[in-house]
């Protein structure tokens, strides 16, 4: 089968550069034990965690052992069961959502205290290698979603009945957003969300669903609207940030307002919003005598965390849902203003006792939940260079969720069959946005070559 393989350590470029990804033919996986199935992905997302793996991003180092190389990335998957062995309910031909949480029992250990509580994302045995080998720990033998087949345990599956592929592939991002919202023990009515990507948008929608009366401000970019040259060089010149489109989409999801500007300008906007005074107090940014009740940071950079702390009122809460790790910060405001910082790095079972992915399935089945427009770009595996460049560029490419698609999927066949012929005078100025086609993918490849 074909798969996008992240190279082994021996293939890493000299000088400590990041490992390369390449399209390879690898053996098709087979279930190693009862309860395991082979899933053929219909759509697989490109997540920020995947991009961090490709960059070998030391600023977002994982907790526990590093992923074994070579490996096939891709954890955001909706697909079809292709082969099943000794399963209780999963059967061949069944459409499923994949919840990428493999706890102790799945990996062959006695349950640790966290897995016994249903908090598999906090498993205390994450640093131990499973007796099942790479099938349970990740790697080439198991394969991830950037492939034509992947191994998954039945306990990591949910039926996808009534959920389209383009909604189902958002399951992991939605679970992350729901868990982040629930990390806030609500006290107050005004919150801000920092970010602009898939998780940000789903977090806004989750806030609106769980707290219909809360006032939501989205801070799209506190560094100005321009992306770095490194991200822009890989894309056709016609692509640029559609600021009005981004703001409009976030308002439709539930935001009351969308802000851009420098950190100082954002603090000024917040002061005007809540009629607060700006207090310098020796902090990197002015703080407010009465600020926001909570800030949800979906970026997790030193700049975004510093801004979040400055926007909070005394005793407010900062929920960090980005991939923050080794950050140099001034923590003075934390103790001086008695702030709470809550990390949100995964999902599993929520405090009320229900499984996060059970809510995901319920929400995605509900046609009123606003998730239909978030998948903006679809690519076959062999167009991976364009797909990864587009995902890394984000809103500069008009991209929200970029996915790889199974070329044999009914969605792709129907979309290509319905696609009208392009007029002969097309000048190629139309942005690469919704329903990317194979023809448009080819044009982008040519523009980069």
Q: What percentage of the residues does DSSP assign to strands (E)? A: 15-25%
* Radius of gyration over all CA atoms, rounded: 22 Å
Tally of DSSP helical segments: 16
Total domain modules: 3
Query: Strand tally, please?
Result: 17
Which blocks of ≥5 consecutive residues have pLDDT under 50? 9-15, 58-65, 224-235, 419-449
What coarse outline follows from CA principal-axis ratios?
globular
Cα(first) to Cα(last) distance is: 27 Å
Structural class: alpha/beta
Salient structural properties:
seven-stranded mixed β-sheet, disordered C terminus, Quinone Oxidoreductase, Chain A, domain 1, six-stranded parallel β-sheet, Rossmann fold, 449 residues, alpha/beta
A few lines on this structure:
The protein has 449 residues and is of the alpha/beta class.
Describe the structure.
The strands form 4 sheets. Strands 3, 4, 5, 6, 7, 16 and 17 form a 7-stranded mixed beta sheet that branches. The protein has a 6-stranded parallel beta sheet with strand order 10-9-8-13-14-15, sandwiched between helices. The protein is built from 16 helices and 17 strands. The chain is globular and about 65 Å long. The chain is about 30% helix and about 20% strand. Strand 14, helix 12 and strand 15 (about 340-345) form a beta-alpha-beta unit. The protein has 3 domains: about 1-170, Alpha-Beta Complex (Quinone Oxidoreductase, Chain A, domain 1); about 175-225 and about 260-345, Rossmann fold (3-Layer(aba) Sandwich); about 375-449, no CATH class. Helix 6 packs across helix 13 (about 355-365). Mean pLDDT is about 80; it is low at about 10-15, about 60-65, about 225-235 and about 420-449. By secondary structure, the protein is α/β, with parallel strands linked by helices.
């Amino acid at each position: 089968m074909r798969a996008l393989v992240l190279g082994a350590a021996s293939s890493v470029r000299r000088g400590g550069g990041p490992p390369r990804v390449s399209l390879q033919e690898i053996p098709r996986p087979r279930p190693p034990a009862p309860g395991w199935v082979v899933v053929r992905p219909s759509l697989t997302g490109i997540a920020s965690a995947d991009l961090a793996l490709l960059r070998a991003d030391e600023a977002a180092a994982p907790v526990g052992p590093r992923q074994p190389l070579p490996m096939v990335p891709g954890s955001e998957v909706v697909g079809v069961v292709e082969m099943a062995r000794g399963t209780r309910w999963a059967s061949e031909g069944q459409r499923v959502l994949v919840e990428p949480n493999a706890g102790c029992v799945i990996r062959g250990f006695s349950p640790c205290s966290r897995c016994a509580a249903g908090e598999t994302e906090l498993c205390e045995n994450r640093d131990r290698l499973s007796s099942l080998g790479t099938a349970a720990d990740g790697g080439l033998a198991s394969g991830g979603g950037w492939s034509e087949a992947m191994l998954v345990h039945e306990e990591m599956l949910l039926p996808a009945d009534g959920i389209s592929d383009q909604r189902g592939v958002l399951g992991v991002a939605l679970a992350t957003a729901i868990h982040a919202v629930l990390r806030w023990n609500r006290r107050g009515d005004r919150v801000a969300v920092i970010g602009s990507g898939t998780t940000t948008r789903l977090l806004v929608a989750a806030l609106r669903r769980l707290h219909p009366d809360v006032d939501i401000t989205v801070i799209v970019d506190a560094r100005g609207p321009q992306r770095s040259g490194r991200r822009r060089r890989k894309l056709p010149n016609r692509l640029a940030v559609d600021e009005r489109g981004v703001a409009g989409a976030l308002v439709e999801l539930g935001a009351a307002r969308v802000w851009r500007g420098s950190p100082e300008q954002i603090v000024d906007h917040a002061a005007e919003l809540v009629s607060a005074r700006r207090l310098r107090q020796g902090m990197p940014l002015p703080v407010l005598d009465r600020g926001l009740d909570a800030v949800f940071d979906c970026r997790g950079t030193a700049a975004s965390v510093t801004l979040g702390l400055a926007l909070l009122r005394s005793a407010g809460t900062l929920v960090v849902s980005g991939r923050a790790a080794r950050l140099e910060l001034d923590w003075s405001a934390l103790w001086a203003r008695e702030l709470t910082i809550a990390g949100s790095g995964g999902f599993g079972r929520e405090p009320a006792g229900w499984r996060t992915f059970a809510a995901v399935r319920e929400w995605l089945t509900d046609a009123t939940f606003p998730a239909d427009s978030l998948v903006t770009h679809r690519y076959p595996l062999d167009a991976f260079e364009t797909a990864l460049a587009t995902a890394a560029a984000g809103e500069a490419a008009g991209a929200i969720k970029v996915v790889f698609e199974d070329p044999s999927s009914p969605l792709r066949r129907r979309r290509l069959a319905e696609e009208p012929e392009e007029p002969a005078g097309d000048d190629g100025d139309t942005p690469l946005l919704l329903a990317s086609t194979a023809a448009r993918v080819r044009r982008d490849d040519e523009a980069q070559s």
